[in-house]
Amino acid sequence: MAEDRMDLSYRVLDDQLVDVDGRRCGRVDDLEIDGDVGGPAYLSSILSGSGTWPQRMPRRLRRLGVRIFGKAVVGRNLIRVPWSQVEDIDTAITLRAPARELGLAQGDDHLAPLIERLPKS
């Protein structure tokens, strides 16, 4: 592979997402590629959240994945981060916007009041 190219699927899948404020806000669970049939393909979005998990399972087990995670969870817990929001690819994927603006780390926001009450937090 040429030095000016990288295999994104191997390079960024499962990497940590870090927002503009340095907050860890999820992982790269999948990549979304768009384009017309016969035309060039381009990377449009990073997909994050448990909604991507059944699609990462072997094809024969995907129905089981939907049964385990539920249809509502699959659709609701899928966050698309436009590729244009990627600032840098290093040991983590640095984003150009805060997690809240991108819809990431929502579970953390719901649990924050509870965690703040814990000693030494």
Distance between the termini: 46 Å
Low-confidence stretches: none
Compressed to H and E, one letter per element, the order equals HEEEEHHHEEEHH
**What characterizes the major β-sheet?**
4 strands, mixed
Radius of gyration, in angstroms, nearest whole number: 16 Å
What is the helix content? Answer: 25-40%
How many helices? The count is 6
Query: What proportion of the residues form beta strands (DSSP E)?
Result: 15-25%
* Structural class by SSE content: alpha+beta
Widest sheet: strand ordering? 2-1-7-6
Number of DSSP-assigned strands: 7
Shape: globular
What does this structure look like?
The protein is α+β, with helices and mostly antiparallel strands. Strand 1 and strand 2 form a beta hairpin. The longest helix is centred in the last third of the chain and has 11 residues. The N and C termini lie far apart (46 Å). 17% of the residues are buried. The mean pLDDT is 81.
Give keywords:
121 residues; alpha+beta; three-stranded antiparallel beta sheet; 6 helices; 31% helix; 25% strand
Give the gist of this structure:
The protein has 121 residues and is of the alpha+beta class. 31% of the residues lie in helices and 25% in strands.
